[in-house]
Specification:
This protein is an all-beta fold. 3% of the residues lie in helices and 40% in strands. The N and C termini lie far apart (203 Å).
């Protein structure tokens, strides 16, 4: 089969010409057919030899490849983009090429005769990556289009003109101290405005500029990790790490940007409490009040926050029995408080074994050892001049009434509790509104009567005895003394009625006509056994008699009428 050479003419040809042929060769593989497709019609002609000739007559239409233009062109001349050409153009100037669309006439210009396209301005792919234009070939003789208008794209080809950037930063983050090597700390991400689909202009690799050997960064992900084991916050707390992001996959000539990541080591409980010294001393006067603080101790802890919270305790029973210890939340001191009264004369020294331990332990750090420390506190009890102490908390004494003045009632005793054992003097507190019935010997403490006592008038007397030290009268003690006045039989019975007795004439013999009672002011023991009788033992009237009934404490007199015999 023969093909007529004339049938191989294409209506329009697009010539892609680039300033740099090497650049063209590397991109022909990227060219795309972006216009509509073309359908060819076939004509069959017979040759002289009888063979049939096939004429391929394509349906007219534009066939366009994608144009490319380098961004950031800074040469003195306009940048050549490509050429529009129609095979109908015989070179006689009868064809006019027209360019329209985005940037036509301002950015892109065309030589209407040759069809050459140039870019007159420097383009920035990051601002606009492509332009959509329309091409048309016009027959100047007929002023009619040779082909329908067709659309094509000029793509701005990327160059590495943008350095990687970190949108935010500097960054602040933290990681626990004593973290294992490789612990993830933070992730940084840089952006590159260049074309990620072409070359390595936007392929970023991370590296660490400052912060080694403590930290490392993954070159692909930008994840920062710990690189040194057992980093100690107490030795160094803050680190400033500088991370670089470099494009072109980190190759020489790539552009770079950097950011700073400020890393703080957060505290973990990796330090036990420590007493600055092993032995302490404190002086406490024996007059110290129970429940009040008498001393303080403090263990130091290099940790902070809850990791530095300390609980104190007294280990030995003797110390724990007399003292207690608690933690001051503000100062973290151990406050020693008195639990029982001190007595210099009985015990002058105490030794307290005190422990300090953390309250919040990290189970992952138990391999570091015990988080506890101990120390000894020696307490010296100071002697204080104390007031005398009575042998009893109160006294009860007895004395008979009507005893002579100066009778001894009883005695009180008190002593000086201090080691000097100062002599004690006694006094009775006097009240102006009350009579003085008792006195006390200042040296012996013997109490005596100063007046006759009447039980029936005052059966009980309450007095207060005061004891002072001879060497220091300002130190005083007081004790209550109660004196009971005992009864003697010093009061006669009293008949409590003097009423006249009225009887009826019809009263029968032996009938009780009156009950008479008698009372005695003395105590029951001395008032029992009343006997009733008429004065002189003979009744004034023989018609009456009395009968003693003895009911209880009161004695009843029955008067019985004796009637005369019948006449």
């Amino acid at each position: 089969m023969k093909v007529n050479p004339r049938s191989c003419l294409c209506p329009v040809l697009l010539c892609l010409c680039f300033l740099e042929r090497g650049y063209e060769a590397s991109h022909h593989g990227q060219a795309k057919i972006i216009s509509r497709s073309h359908n060819a019609t076939h004509n069959h002609n017979q040759t002289k030899d009888g063979e049939t000739e096939i004429h391929h007559r394509p349906k007219r239409g534009w066939i366009w490849n994608q144009f490319f233009v380098l961004e950031e062109h800074i040469g003195p001349d306009a940048q050549y983009v490509g050429k529009l050409h129609s095979n109908s153009d015989k070179g006689d100037g009868s064809v006019r090429y027209i360019l329209s669309g985005e940037g036509a006439g301002s950015i892109f210009i065309i030589n209407e005769v040759t069809g050459d396209i140039h870019a007159t301005k420097s383009l920035d792919r990051e601002k606009k990556s492509h332009y959509v234009l329309h091409a048309q070939a016009i027959n100047l003789n007929t002023n009619k289009p040779l082909e329908p208008e067709s659309e094509f794209i000029i793509k701005v080809q990327d160059i590495n003109d943008n350095a990687p950037k970190f949108p935010e930063g500097p960054f602040v983050t933290s990681v626990p101290e004593m973290s294992e090597v490789g612990t993830s700390v933070f992730q940084v991400t840089a952006t590159d405005a260049d074309d990620p689909t072409y070359g390595n202009s936007a392929r970023v690799v991370y590296s660490i500029l400052h912060g080694q050997p403590y930290f490392s960064v993954d070159p692909k992900s930008g994840i920062i990790r710990t690189a040194l084991a057992d980093m100690d916050r107490e030795a160094r707390e803050h680190y400033s790490v500088v991370i670089q992001a470099k494009d072109m996959a980190g190759q020489v000539g790539g552009l770079s940007g950097s950011t700073t990541v400020n890393i703080t080591l957060t505290d973990v409980n990796d330090n036990p409490p420590k007493f600055p010294q092993k032995n302490y001393q404190v002086f406490v006067p024996e007059s110290a009040q129970v429940g009040k603080p008498v001393g303080k101790m403090k263990a130091s802890d290099e940790d902070i926050g809850i990791n530095a919270e300390i609980k104190y305790s007294i280990l030995n029973p003797e110390g724990a029995g007399m003292f207690s210890i608690s933690t001051d939340k503000d100062t973290r001191e151990g406050v020693i408080t008195l639990r029982k009264p001190l007595n210099y004369e009985k015990k002058k020294h105490y030794s307290l074994h005190i422990a300090a331990e953390n309250t919040h332990l990290d189970p992952h750090l138990t391999y570091l050892g015990s988080f506890k420390d101990d120390a000894t506190l020696k307490i010296t009890v100071g002697d204080v001049d104390e007031p005398p102490i009575f042998s009893m908390d109160y006294y009860i004494m007895e004395v008979y009434e009507n005893t002579r003045v100066g009778t001894e009632v009883g005695a009180v005793t008190a002593r000086d509790p201090d080691s000097k054992n100062s002599p004690v003097r006694y006094f009775i507190e006097q009240r102006e509104d009350k009579a003085v019935y008792f006195d006390i010997e200042s040296i012996s403490g013997v109490i005596r009567t100063t007046q006759l006592l009447d039980r029936e008038d005052t059966p009980w007397h309450n007095i207060t005895v005061m004891a002072t030290e001879e060497d220091n009268p300002s130190l005083q003690s007081h004790v209550p003394v109660t004196v009971q006045v005992l009864d003697v039989n010093d009061n006669p019975p009293m008949i409590n009625t003097e009423d006249e007795i009225i009887i009826c004439e019809s009263t029968r013999a032996g009938q009780v006509i009156q009950t008479i009672t008698a009372v005695d002011k003395d105590d029951f023991a001395n008032g029992k056994g009343f006997s009733f009788s008429f004065p002189g033992g003979i009744p004034a009237n023989p018609n009456f008699t009395i009968k003693d009934n003895e009911e209880g404490v009161t004695f009843i007199l029955a008067v019985v009428l004796l009637l005369p015999p019948p006449p």
